[in-house]
Each structure stands twice: as structure tokens, then as C-alpha cells.
Automatic annotation (TrEMBL):
High-level lineage: Bacteria, Pseudomonadati, Pseudomonadota, Alphaproteobacteria, Hyphomicrobiales
Protein name, entry field: Glycogen synthase
Sites where the protein binds ADP-alpha-D-glucose: 15
Species, as recorded: Rhizobium phaseoli
Entry's Gene Ontology cellular component terms: cytosol
Annotated GO MF terms: alpha-1,4-glucan glucosyltransferase (ADP-glucose donor) activity; alpha-1,4-glucan glucosyltransferase (UDP-glucose donor) activity
Amino acid sequence: MKVLSVSSEVFPLIKTGGLADVSGALPIALQAFEVETKTLLPGYPAVLKVIRDPVVRLELPDLLGEPATVLEVQHEGLDLLILDAPAYYDRPGGPYVDPLGKDYPDNWRRFAALSLAASEIAAGLLPGWRPDLVHTHDWQAALTSVYMRYYPTPELPSVLTIHNIAFQGQFGSEIFPGLRLPAHAFATDSIEYYGTVGFLKGGLQTAHAITTVSPTYADEILTPEFGMGLEGVIASHIDNLHGIVNGIDTDVWNPATDPVVHTHYGATTLKNREENRRSIAEFFHLDNDNAPIFCVISRLTWQKGMDIVANVADEIVAMGGKLVVLGSGEAALEGALLAAAARHPGRIGVSIGYNEPMSHLMQAGCDAIIIPSRFEPCGLTQLYGLRYGCVPIVARTGGLNDTVIDANHAALAAKVATGIQFSPVTETGMLQAIRRAMHFYADRKLWTQLQKQGMKSDVSWEKSAERYAALYSSLVSKGM
């Protein structure tokens, strides 16, 4: 089966969050199920700088008014199609924001161009290759199935994955003429959304199947609390809604072989984590003692519950714990966390920015990872924590609920607990969870049991890739 995957970021080439990890790992996992995937992504400077010996496969002289070229290249096991369109992507900053952190004003055109190019490839414009199915990711690629509906191309089945419904790609109606869609596409059964243009909404209305990245999140987005205004649209497609939990690349995330981990280890050699723990203490200038090190590796935003972390930081120290934070985001939250570190030298350490190697080392050296998200479609850091024996302390929501087994009395007695869940997501709720963690940590046998059970968890892509392959097959066999 041939699949065209369309994503605005793909690890290891370009990453701002979990979307990149999924779009980079899933195609490789699908190979075991005889699914051949080509992934289309934008030709950002960071991408073009890394790839080697690309082949020009397609010229698009007028892609929404700008010239573009589709390059093909193999990179670390991925078959990539790169949309080289300098007018859209050759600029400083990140994939979505300028160097000052502000959204590019033409993001609508940049990602409409990506979607239009994907629809052209779906129609067979790429010489010698045409997909059997198209899989799009989030609002940046969601217009692909809209273009597939309205352009004169043979119908192919399409799947849209929602990684986070909070990001919808909503723009003023004045952009509609620039999309080059027929006038009747501006309708409620397509991209019209309360008088505006909704990229994600259009994708939901036109894709043949919708997936989310955990079963719990699939249920949550049907409610007003989590549906972010699109719960009615999703409910109208409930028969085609599937919750498939994410996996991780267990070759990249492997404490026994990870190149950035100072001392490798496994479930039977957990004592080897101690050297990594000392490295964490050195990097964050912590006191070298036996107090548990709680870590946070996250975007520093309200959604991720980082305001709660900042508010309870003093209490964590008062209880005898240490806290290290890696991430960036809202300036006020960055400032609050840095202020906490200044108040508690040797007990709290904060590193502002993105540091992939350090995120690995923190999982390998810290005792527990705190993930207090107010909503979390799937989450990957708790999966990394399970894999590395860094006990997850998580809010009871979305994929966090699906992937971490709470250390309640029954689970502990059955020796199946893998972490600590808490609800509600408040300062009180988090502090109760941390008190539980401190209690468990004092019992080294019990803490080791939690670590080992977590490391037994199947966090690979194998089962999830099998579900995606089955979904693809069912859609293709229906002849959509």
C-alpha cells in the first residue's frame, strides 16, 4: 500500500513538538505492515541544510502564485518529498513564527500551498508514483482533503489526525479568494466556520476518517470543554472517529544505547542511573544529595499547567524535593520559574530553550517527570519517562490517562502501577501527587518496582502502527 503523509514538521529534520516525533516514527513503523510512505513537508532552511543529494521530482510554477519544486530524498529511514518554495519557507524564525515569536501573517498561504501540492501529488502528478491513500496531520495539512474534494482529481481516501484541536488554523474570510477554491467551498459542509475560514474544520468535513492520538482524547473532543468549538462537527463524523495512542521510536529512546546518556542501563541495572543523576545535578547546579529530582520537560504554557508548577515550586523544595525545568514558552512563566530558581539555589534549576540531548539525559537521570497538562491529546514525555525509569506524575486527562497506570492500592498490590495520576489539575491536586511520590520514593523497593514496571510498558509504535495499517486497508478496500 502506498501512502502520502503530509506534515508541517518531521523529526529529525524539524521539530517544535510531538507532531514531528509522530510523523517521523509512524512511517518507519508501518513498513512492517507493507505500507510504503512518502512524507511531504515544507522546505524550511533547517531542512534544506541537512538533506543530501535531493532529486528534483516535480516543478510547480504557480503554487498559489509562487514557484515551487518538489524534491525527493531519503533521510534516516524516511522517504521524503520536500516542498522547496523559497517565497513561503526561506525565512528566519521557526516553522510558524518569526524571530520575535509572532505568527507569520501569511501562514494561511504557506500551509494552503503545502496542502495544494499534496493534492496534486495525490492526483498522480509525481512521475511514476501515486498513493492509494493520503494521511494529513493537524491544521497545517488539513486543506489537502479539501483540495482533493474540489479539484478534478480521482477520489482517494484520506485520514486526518488531530494532534491538538486547540490549534485550528482559523483565518478571516478575506483570504478565501487566495485559496483558489470554488465559491461553493465556502460552506458549512466545508471550510466556512462562523464566517471565517477554518483549515482544520475543512479537513474534518472532507476526510474519510479522523484519528486522534489517544482513545480518551477521542472521547474528550466530543465535549464542549475539550472540543474547542468543533465538538459538533466531530460528533457528526463519530462513526469515522478513531482514537489510536501514539508510540515512540524505541531505537532513538533506549536507555541501553542512547548516545547522550552518560551511563547506559536497563531495568536490571537501574543503579547505573546514578551517574546520569550526578550529571543532571551538575548541569543545573543542584546540591549533590539523595533528595528526589523532579523534572519538567515542556513548552511553558497554560495548557501544559506550567503556571501550577511555578506556583508550587516553593512547596516542592519545602517537602524535600528538587526541581529541574527545561523548556520555553510564555515570558511570564519563564520569568516565574527563573525567579523560583533564584530563590532556591541548589534546589531548583531552570534551562530556557529547546535542548533535545538534555531532554534525553533528564529522563535518564531524574527520578520523576511531572506532566500537569490541563488537556493532553496524547503526550510523549510520559512515554519517554516510562521507557527510562523516570516515574511519570501526570494529570488524569487524554493520553496521559491512557498510558500511565496510577499507583493506587490495587495497582501496587498487583504490581502493575507505572506512575502517579492526579485530578483535578490544581495546585492542591499536584501537591498531593508529589507527596505520594515522596512517600513512595522513601521506600526504595517500592520505587524500584514502579520504575521497573514502567520500563516493561509497551510504548513502541508496533500496536498503533498495526491499527493504522488496518484503518488504511479498510478505507482503500471500500474504494473511496
